[in-house]
Amino acid sequence: MIRSVVRGFGAALPKRVLTNAELESMVDTSDEWIVQRTGIHQRYIAGEGETTASLGEAAARAALDKAGLTAADIDVIIVATSTPDNTFPATAVNIQNRLGMHHGFAFDVQAVCSGFVYAVTTADAYIRGGLAKRVLVIGAETFSRILDWTDRTTCVLFGDGAGAIVLEAADGAGTNQDRGVLTAQLRSDGAHREKLYVDGGPSTTGTVGHLRMEGREVFKHAVGMITDVIVSAFDATGFAAEDIDWLVPHQANKRIIDGSARKLGIPLEKVVVTVDLHGNTSAASIPLALAAAAGDGRIKEGDLVLLEAMGGGFTWGAVLLRW
Ligand code: UT7
């Protein structure tokens, strides 16, 4: 059986760090409120010349280096983003060109904070379907560019960055002991669109718009949706919470992460947390967290790793893979 195995990982963050203390001088907020309600201490903000494509390119180059590969070895590039450099062409095509890659194909996936989980699922389907041998999967965002910097309920939450992995086709026995993606579970429900959306777009206002969120409403749904889809991943594979070596969740809020882990019975020592340093980087948060935990040796070959995300749409999903 063909499996999609992680060969390399990489990350890229903008140069500028924005601390909670600095935000206190921009809106009516406090370090204490932000830390207590979200766990965020700082976030990175893209500066001049830094864009979703430039950050995605840097993360992609790091992932290729780690894999010992070059762009010549890649068949497909999939970028998960809601903050593309342009409405079109896709940021993936921009990154393809920046990498000097003129073969294969590249496209974007838009599922907001669940984007990376959707993109990994898509890449896995291409690989298992025999359409590609190696896929570069990137989550890259510059949410700072769609924030309303006068709205304290949203501007303190988000940050910019990019992460990438290389997925490669490998022969597996078809058992749960195989390395690679073991199951992927995706969900969406557009009935919740008003709770988290951007109030502009090419076909409505002709503007880019700003992020709007009813945070409390999103929070109310988050833990239930996340745990439901993880239970589906357990049902599909026969694994249980105690089998998981690492939970790598979307990094929206430390309280959501802790609440989900607690409900599932996954000890907090097995949860990778980067929200304190990165804030919520939407589709970039999971690959940034993967790069942090694999980079410092926490995630090791053979570990069972659970990815999960929930975000605008609503969209949500989980991927269970053996590293
Ligand atoms: O990644 C996509 C998914 N997104 C999420 O998962 C986000 C989900 N939501 C959340 O993480 C939380 O709901 C927030 C962090 C956004 C807010 O936390 P909360 O505990 O739900 O607070 P709240 O919205 O109920 O607001 C509590 C109070 C309000 O004041 P009143 O009405 O009680 O007087 C807010 O006006 O906190 C106030 N507030 C702030 N105070 C200081 C809201 N934002 C701020 C702020 N600084 N930045």
TrEMBL record:
The lineage of its organism: Bacteria, Pseudomonadati, Pseudomonadota, Alphaproteobacteria, Hyphomicrobiales. Coiled coil: none annotated. This is Beta-ketoacyl-[acyl-carrier-protein] synthase III. It is an enzyme of class 2 (transferase). The last Arg residue of the ACP-binding site is essential for the weak association between ACP/AcpP and FabH. The active site is at C113, H250, N280. Pathway: Lipid metabolism; fatty acid biosynthesis. Homodimer. PANTHER family: 3-OXOACYL-[ACYL-CARRIER-PROTEIN] SYNTHASE, BETA-KETOACYL-[ACYL-CARRIER-PROTEIN] SYNTHASE III, CHLOROPLASTIC. The gene is fabH. Residues 235-323 form the Beta-ketoacyl-[acyl-carrier-protein] synthase III C-terminal domain. Belongs to the thiolase-like superfamily. FabH family. Residues 251-255 are annotated as: ACP-binding. Catalyzes the condensation reaction of fatty acid synthesis by the addition to an acyl acceptor of two carbons from malonyl-ACP. Catalyzes the first condensation reaction which initiates fatty acid synthesis and may therefore play a role in governing the total rate of fatty acid production. Possesses both acetoacetyl-ACP synthase and acetyl transacylase activities. Its substrate specificity determines the biosynthesis of branched-chain and/or straight-chain of fatty acids.
